[in-house]
Inverse folding.
DNA sequence: GGCTGTACGCCAGTTACTTCA
DNA sequence: CATGAAGTAACTGGCGTACAG
């Protein structure tokens, strides 16, 4: 059972556009186990479809969308970025050299592809491959506009089919391989962020469990001390004034009792009305909700 | 229908480069 | 100005899947 949205102190809305799965990660200590498991098991390594709400630039926010739209309006996406544009956007960053990207499996596949070969030649800001020698790997810094468009596209679908990839590459004046790499890196970044969030979440869970364990150990010690003490039985309230419900183990006191035990009318319809609820290890360190024990009435208050 | 080779996409890990404090 | 850290584009190798022969 998921925690309600109003219960979330810090929630991550993880919307997955492709299959419309939605996942929320609650970082509050008061997490129920199912919420924890859903947040952690919902991630599939082969389909890391998380959309993490980042504090700096939330791709899901309206402001971000508006900003991106304005950026989209601001540039002519059908125009190949010129070298001058590159200089303007990225200062003295190096022009895009494609020589070093012709390597490995990818180039084996894409290097011989006709369309993509065209894109290779048409894009890359008119810089020839061998401008910087054969071994250097010059890195292109994508312009803000390009990054914004890629981000917007990623927001819609975090993977691209070949058609989308080609269209986007053409739109941005990049090679399809660059678009593909950008999406791969973007997915990796998203996953990394999510991993960090999950790690933080597990850390909190661990802290809560430690605290709960400490509390229970203390309670056990108190109970043992009381059991060994001969005065324990002397201090016990006579059974005529305190009765315990065998079903829910709650102590019922007469209406006149001024003690802290539950004085409300306590009637059960059937013997199975109450059932034992396991302790929630994901709950906060605060005492779990349960009926008072007989020891609660006699335990010294701290 | 099962097997094999090929193409392709994705991922984790890494490298190389840029930017910034 | 030099430098280290952080960010990120690009590369590499491995794995899974689809498909044709």
């Amino acid at each position: 059972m998921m925690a309600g949205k109003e219960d979330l102190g810090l929630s991550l809305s993880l919307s997955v556009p492709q299959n419309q799965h939605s996942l929320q990660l609650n970082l509050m200590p008061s997490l129920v186990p199912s919420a924890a498991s859903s947040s952690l098991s919902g991630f599939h390594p082969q389909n890391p479809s998380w959309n993490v709400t980042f504090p700096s630039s939330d791709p899901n926010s309206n402001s971000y969308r508006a900003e991106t739209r304005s950026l989209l309006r601001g540039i002519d996406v059908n125009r190949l970025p010129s070298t001058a544009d590159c200089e303007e956007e990225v200062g003295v960053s190096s022009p895009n050299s494609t020589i070093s990207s012709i390597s490995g499996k990818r180039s084996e596949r894409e290097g011989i592809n006709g369309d993509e070969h065209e894109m290779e030649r048409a894009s890359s800001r008119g810089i020839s491959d061998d401008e910087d020698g054969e071994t250097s790997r010059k890195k292109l810094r994508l312009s803000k506009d390009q990054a914004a468009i890629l981000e917007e596209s990623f927001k819609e679908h975090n993977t691209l089919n070949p058609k989308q990839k080609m269209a986007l590459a053409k739109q941005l004046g990049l090679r399809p391989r660059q678009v593909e790499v950008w999406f791969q890196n973007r997915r990796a970044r998203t996953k990394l962020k999510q991993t960090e969030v999950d790690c933080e979440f597990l850390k909190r869970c661990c802290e809560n469990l430690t605290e709960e364990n400490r509390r229970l150990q203390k309670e056990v010690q108190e109970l043992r001390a009381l059991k060994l003490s001969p005065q324990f039985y002397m201090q016990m309230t006579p059974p005529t004034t305190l009765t315990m419900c065998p079903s829910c183990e709650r102590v019922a006191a007469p209406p006149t009792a001024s003690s802290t035990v539950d004085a409300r009318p306590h009637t059960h319809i059937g013997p199975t009305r109450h059932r034992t609820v396991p302790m929630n290890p994901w709950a906060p360190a605060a005492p779990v909700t349960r009926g008072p024990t007989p020891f609660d009435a006699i335990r010294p208050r701290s």
